[in-house]
Amino acid sequence: MRRKGGRGDRAAERAEEGPGRCARLGKGAGIVSLAAAMAGAVPAFASGWDLLNMPRGVTNVSTRIYSLHMMAFWVCVVLAALVFGVMIWSLLFHRKARGAVPDVTMVHNTKVEIVWTTIPVLILVGMAIPAARLLVRINNNTDSEVSIRVNGFQWGWQYQYLGTNVSIVSKLSQSSDAASMLDSGTNPRSVPHYLLSVDHPLVVPVGEKVRLLITSVDVIHSWWVPDLGVKRSAIPGFINEASFTIDPSKPGVYRGQCADLCGRGHAYMPIVVHAVSPAAFQTWLKQQESAGKQVSTGEPAPPAAST
Amino acid sequence: MTDAHAKAEGSYYVPHGSPWPIVAAVALFSLMLGAVLFLDGAAPAWSLLPGPLLLAFLFVGWFSTVVGENQKGIYNLRVDRSFRMAMMWFIFSEVMFFAAFFGALFYARMFSVPWLGGQGVKAITNFLLWPHYEATWPTNGPGHVGGAHFDSAPMGIAALNTLILLTSGLTVTIAHHALRSGHRGRLKLFLALTFLLGFTFVALQAHEYGEAYMHMNLKLTTGIYGTTFFMLTGFHGLHVTIGAIMLVVIWFRVLRGHFTPERHFAFEAVSWYWHFVDVVWLCLFIFVYWL
Amino acid sequence: MTESHETAVHAEHDHKPHGWRRWVFATNHKDIGTMYLIFSGLMFFLGGAAAMGIRAQLFKSGLELFDPAEFNQLLTMHALMMIFGAVMPAWVGLANWMIPLQIGAPDMALPRLNNLSFWILPFAGALLISAFLVPGGAPAGGWTMYPPLMEQFGASFPMVIFAIHLLGISSILGAINVIVTIMNLRAPGMSLLRMPLFVWTWLITAYLLIAVMPVLAGAVTMLLTDHFFGTSFFNAAGGGDPVLFLHVFWFFGHPEVYILILPAFGVISEIIPTFSRKPLFGYEAMVYATASIAFLSFIVWGHHMFTVGMPVAAQLFFMLSTMLIAVPTGVKVFNWTATMWRGSLSFEPPMLFAVAFLFLFTIGGFSGLMLALVPSDYQYHGTYFVVAHFHYVLVPGAIFAIMGAVYYWLPKWSGRMYDMRLAKWHFWLSAIFVNVLFFPQHFLGLAGMPRRIADYAPQFTDWNMVSSIGGFVFGAAQLLFPYIVWQCVRSGKPVGANKPWEGAHGLEWELPSPAPYHSWQEPPSEAVLAHGAEH
Ligand code: HEA
Ligand code: HEA
Ligand code: CUA
Ligand SMILES: [Cu+2]
Questions:
Q1: Which atom of ligand 2 is nearest to the CA of C454?
Q2: How far is C190 from C529, CA to CA, in rounded Å?
Q3: B76-290: what CATH class?
């Protein structure tokens, strides 16, 4: 298929994605919806398995979210298997066509009813505890090493590194912008990272806690990078906080998009984060500072890949 | 079927087709369309007129039909009970409408204004965005929307109005007792007192609005205090006005000799409405003026 | 009931009015119910046409059909037309038809009010749809209408607001009528705990409607005054907060989704026992479960706002309360399953739709449960995973239940049977392709595709193509539905004196098919009541 290039890149960015996990999801999908899975089998192979599930991501938080998600998923699959199993059993064996005689005395049964009220409660408690723990942890934004103010606007992002004069305006890359016009005639697949590339990416250090202070100058936006496990609305007039620490062994380019409807350009305000070593980050920051007050145009040091 | 059946105890009256509902639908639509055209600047202010006029026509027409049918004795107790239940639930829906605006008031006072002023979980908002703002109530917000600062609306007129409304709640109850015990004279007197008190309330409220606009720079457009103040008291005032007009209508019906000690749904409906307006005011007085 | 019952009386002689007056001045619950259902069908097709536009645009990466602003208009209007135009009126239409029949009443309690609540709808619908025609086009802020974005739209902004006001008035009046009918017009002996579940679920739905439609009216009124009269509800500079709108809107919005699904629960609880030839398992538990769901629905609204920056304690509260809803909903699913268990099942079209509902609604419920876990929702929110969730509960949920209800009661209404074979085609095409349409959207969401975008990165193309193809076939299959109904009413085989479904029970089946113009002129006797309750 023509899309090979784009797929490869994405897979490389998320090196840890294994086919095993996705195959399992495929199986789950089969249980819950045979029809969809069959119809989907062909393109699923074509796109690579990494397009079926949530990314594990590269921060402590994102991997834990991933685990919580998979836990919830499997709980649902098991419950579905049980409930649907009983249903299918009835559908197959208690049908009139097979001469089944209805048991009209089966009107209710307090014992079973208590059981099937209590067990779900226990299951839910089992899910709620890890979720609550993780929630509290995610919302701890103290002890950060870098603070960045994020201003959403129609349609792009501005990043200000607090305590410095460095400020970046980050908008959809020229190539994507041109190709995204109505009937542009450009095949999106020929554009590298179509709709997911920007002119000036956000640069952050790996291994350090980065705190984002998110707001907006016009309407509500939402700053979302799946691999970082961060999504937070940008509310005009208020500051929302979020933070992440990227695994020191995972420098790279991480992409995301605005996740709240913000008008005509909502699909066109991607987020690109370059995660570099702390040393490289400091160098880059110095460079930017000495470049003066003007809005940064500089490319970060490594990785130099196209954004 | 004949009317003889209709009077049978407990039977249910299914009214014949009526043009009033469709007139009502058209009236409501004209009201909304007029507002749309006006707000969009597509038509001058007269576009606001047809809706209310049609509505007035509708109410007169529909209610006369119903009153006429009622006077003919077609309705029985079961119909009466349907009307009562419907009125109760209608009032409940009004309660929920006010609840939305009270919710806005509480949210502003308990969350948004403190956050903007640097308290609570979003304190950083103040530090980065509104560094010189201090949370107070009343307030026109960190952007000083609408200009110079002002004090809260004075309690004086409000306290007087509270007294007036509470008294009117009492007078309508006295009127009700009079109706039930067949004292028509007392009924007429206290009913009239009730709507007179109601109109006095509205007049005082209008005076207060004038003061607020002219001398206090307290306006709909002066930040969240003005917003919640005028929206809450405004919708309430509108309801008082409607309620008082309904009282007048009921009063005329009393003059015409309508209602019996046992059967007087319309009277009760209006008095419930009046009590509802009363209770909303108490909440307003406590949360808007007092606390 | 205190008063002794009763013959239904009519101010005029007892033949029906003819010509246009029958409809425009209608006071008959069946006529009004029919008008509701026709209106709903119309809006379903218009909303569906918008959905087809959305799916066509999203067929592949790259913008080819609509400008993004137009896309957002389609999206907004699709949702508004489907929710307020298709599903809610369909439920009111069914309530009109069935509640008097099922409780032994001659008509709705307030027939003229009933007429008004219907006739508001065409006007509201016209106002809503004409928003497309004014300069600047329809509002494009999504059905959630968040400020300040919503305030950026032009001439159509007040049109949509006032259309919502009208729809709200209609719903409130309709709900009042339902409550009064149920509380005041039940046949003697029809105690609350003997009422059919469709009546029960509608009663509770009506309470929800009266409680939350005014709140929606309040929310959009605040939008209006912020935009036109300079108030500061949603303006931080004035001391307000855009998030305030979200709170008010979702205080309405979450109960709203149960308004869309509770009557469906009622319908399923009628259909499954009939075609299992067995009484509903756990009737009382069903009633209490419905009430618990309704109660809980008032305290979970924050789950739509996990990423907007609420205090952690609030997020926790909303997570836990949301998860709790799975318990009463589970009770329902288990009771339906137990009803089929050791039954004698047959699969006529209504049962097929009910069974599909059971499976697919549960899938939608499970994804809802996943969404309720706050940390996971940080990843799911605003993506196609949410779109997949709510379409599973809305399309094979609410829509399938509505279709099942029509296939179940159409012979009752018309006295004729529809083409069963064609209806089964309709079912199988719908059931298969609804999954092709919406299942892949789970994958898209998880892989990172945001919702409400007109164009997307190329790696999402394959699943979008699958979804769009599923959508086109699903949509085309829906054309069968009006045809089947039309054919049935025109030339279906009369069902005669027999019940069309041998396992059916309930008062409505004690009346001839079609039911007489004034449903229960004579209240059913205790014997009829008891006969209706057994099989
Ligand atoms: C009919 C409509 C309907 C229904 C019934 C539901 C039902 C549920 N919904 Fe859904 N929802 C919507 C319509 C609906 N929803 C819509 C329209 C939106 C999006 C709005 C927008 O943003 O535009 C939405 C969005 C939405 C969100 C917000 C997502 C986001 O934007 O980030 C959440 C989060 O918690 C959620 C949760 C739930 C839950 C927990 C249920 C529960 O009620 C489900 C309960 C059911 C089950 C769990 C399955 C059956 C149970 C069992 C078999 C028992 C055993 C189970 C266990 C013990 C787990 N929904
Ligand atoms: C009850 C409510 C309801 C129903 C029934 C549906 C039904 C459908 N919905 Fe809808 N949808 C919503 C409620 C509903 N939706 C809501 C609330 C949103 C969120 C909006 C927002 O974000 O603000 C949404 C958003 C939404 C999106 C997300 C858009 C986005 O985020 O960018 C999509 C995309 O696929 C979609 C598709 C569909 C489809 C294909 C159907 C199909 O089931 C429709 C099938 C019906 C028909 C097709 C009509 C019948 C046939 C014809 C008209 C004949 C013509 C047929 C052909 C040309 C084939 N819907
Ligand atoms: Cu910014 Cu969507
Ligand atoms: Cu919800």
A1: 32
A2: 8
A3: mainly alpha
